[in-house]
Amino acid sequence: MPPVRLPDLWSMPWRDLDPVRREFDFAELFALMRSLPPAGEMPSPGADRLLIDLWLDRMTAAGSRCGGV
Q1: Predicted TM-score (pTM) of this structure
Q2: Which three-class secondary structure state does DSSP give residue 56?
């Protein structure tokens, strides 16, 4: 399955961000959710900072594989 593409929110005009004017695409949401690492892999509170950074890198990588709705 191809990666989901998320837009760069900082560069989008308000008309594209206004929830009143947008249709919600559940298929894109589900594809994004499937691309994220399992929640069970989230480091526990008080975990080593390096472990937390590695997990955050995985989450960021999953989001960056997405690139434009």
Answers
A1: 0.43
A2: helix
CA distance 69 to 48: 35
Residuewise pLDDT in 10s, the chain (69 residues)? 667 677 777 887 887 777 777 677 778 778 877 877 777 788 888 899 898 888 888 877 766 655 544
Task: Please give the structure tokens belonging to residue 48.
Answer: 């080593």
DSSP label of 3: P
Q: Give the 3-state secondary structure of the chain.
A: CCCCCCCCHHHCCHHHHCCCCCCCCHHHHHHHHHHCCCHHHCCCCCCCHHHHHHHHHHHHHHHHCCCCC
